[in-house]
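Q: Hi! First time doing this. I have a protein sequence and I read that you can turn it into a structure. Is that right? Here it is:
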Amino acid sequence: MKKLFLIAFGLVIMSGAQAQEDQKTQQSNTSSNSTTMWLGGGINYTSTNGDGIFTLAPSFGMMINENMAIGGTLQLSGGSNTSGWALIPYFRYYMPVTDKFSLYGDAYIAIAGGDNDTTDDNFGSYSAWGIGVSPGVQYWFTPQWSISTTVGRVGYQSSKFENQNDPDTKFNLNVDFTAINFSLLYHF
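A: Yes, that's right. Below is the predicted 3D structure, encoded as structure tokens:
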């Protein structure tokens, strides 16, 4: 498993180096030259076991040079038996493919909390934190508007419910194509 992870990491680094070389030969990149900041977010609805959870996730970001950006997302979620929040600041590195299309990677730290109103003694109020990386793609359909998506993440997370003595900690490697996150972004 470690060898597979190292090989995948090496391929990501090599593709990033190639993308940098390709960008040097291009005169412009829609993602970095026409705008310096963005506002946007995503909306998500999931239903498990008959309980629906609605999530609203506004975000803000700012380019710090041609390929790097910083930003943050605030996630607010609620359903019939649950409510929660998460604050997710991130560092983003773009790897341009064309003038309108880029791959990127987000390195993030997340803190979260909420309440699960269930009759199960193992749940209730909770707090959590995590750190990790998430791959994504972004497409600019006009100079001011783009759509981005992330799929999966690699990271570490820890959560603690009020009725548990020990926190639940785990290392995640999650590529789940049923949980793709889309965001619509306005660049200015």
